[in-house]
Amino acid sequence: MSGAVDARTPGPLDRLPRAARTLIAIAATAAVLWAALAVTTGLFVAAAFGAWWASLIGLAVLLVLEVLAITALLRVGSGRRHRITAVVIVLVSVVGLGLALARFGQIPMVWVAPGFELVHPVVAVASALIPGIAIGPRWMRVVCGMLVAGALAAAVWWVAATTEPPADPLAQPLAQQEANFEAYVAGGDFPLVADLPSGTIVDGTPLGGPPTMLVRTAAGGVVAITTDRTPVVEQPDSWPCWFLADGGRDLESTDSLADVADWCVQDGERWRRVDGLGIARLNGAGLVAVSPASTHDIATAGGDRPATSEEIAAVFDALRPMTEREVRSGFPAG
């Protein structure tokens, strides 16, 4: 790794002992590598987001600048241009960063504090020990050689050590979903459905909304059964009517039953629309509402039209909780 003698004007560092100059070169090289590795990590991130060409060009330019900078540092420390040594140092640092990234499988790799990546200084310092072998006095070459050998052995052991396989990014959410489902089944608080002659039950629950089961009648009408678990005691007395509205009625949180009596009334233990196109009743702490399905739900259920008042009444009278078997197997659409 020796370089050609470089004729230059002696500088102030030339008066220092060789060991001191070598230590300065090692420290400065570590600083250059640290900064370069941080930029390299940023280029990896940019490549992951699709900026492949820009990242490759940036990496090539960065590697050249690193080699030039480290060559200059080695020249100051030894009076020679150790270009090959500079190239080896840069390649070792890049390989070290690549091994760490492959090992951790994520960025940041070792989080210590916001904006600080521990892998960068570790790889930088380990790579910066190489100048000690190339330009240091004999005792420093021995020490740095042993440290570099130890770092290589530790890296090999670290990569080859038996560890748990990387976690599948979908495994944890899937396991959590299964745990949540089992807890839901154990609770037994299932949505309500209805059995009609020649009817079909379909799951039409919207994303993030209360459970909504759809019943397609033999005549093609589609009924929506919404099981809401929001405690009615914490809602206004017109709350059940909210689930019977078809979008043509604006409701306010302060509306009472008297305010909506022209289209929704309470009849014993049920609330119903005056036109018959919606019936609701208490269901435990919450309520269940039966109403015509929306256009989207009609398509989901494979129906032809919204349900009539007669179909809604028939479904309401046939309401029953889903069984555990039905919950686990689901309802096939169609």
Count of alpha and pi helical runs: 11
Distance separating the two termini: 76 Å
Radius of gyration: 36 Å
* Percent of residues in helices: 40-55%
Structural class comes to alpha+beta
Total strands: 14
**N-to-C SSE string, H for helix and E for strand:** EHHEHEEHHHHEEEEHEEEEHEHEH
Number of domains: 2
Strand content: 15-25%
State the shape: rod-shaped
Specify the biggest β-sheet: 8 strands, mixed
- Report mean pLDDT, rounded to a whole number: 79
Low-confidence stretches: none
What is this entry, summarized?
The chain is an alpha+beta fold and 334 residues long. It is built from eleven helices and 14 strands.
Protein architecture, described:
The protein is an alpha+beta fold and 334 residues long. The protein has two domains: 4-160, no CATH class; 191-329, no CATH class. It contains eleven helices and 14 strands. It has helices spanning 18-48, 52-78, 83-104, 119-128, 130-135, 138-160, 171-187, 239-242, 295-301, 309-317, 324-329, and strands spanning 4-5, 80-81, 111-113, 116-117, 192-194, 200-203, 212-216, 221-228, 264-267, 270-273, 279-283, 286-292, 305-306, 319-321. The strands form four sheets. Strands 6, 7, 8, 9, 10, 11, 12 and 13 form an eight-stranded mixed β-sheet that branches. A two-stranded antiparallel sheet has the order 1-2. Strand 10 (270-273) and strand 11 form a beta hairpin. Helix 1 crosses helix 4 (119-128), helix 2 (52-78) crosses helix 3 and helix 3 runs antiparallel to helix 4.
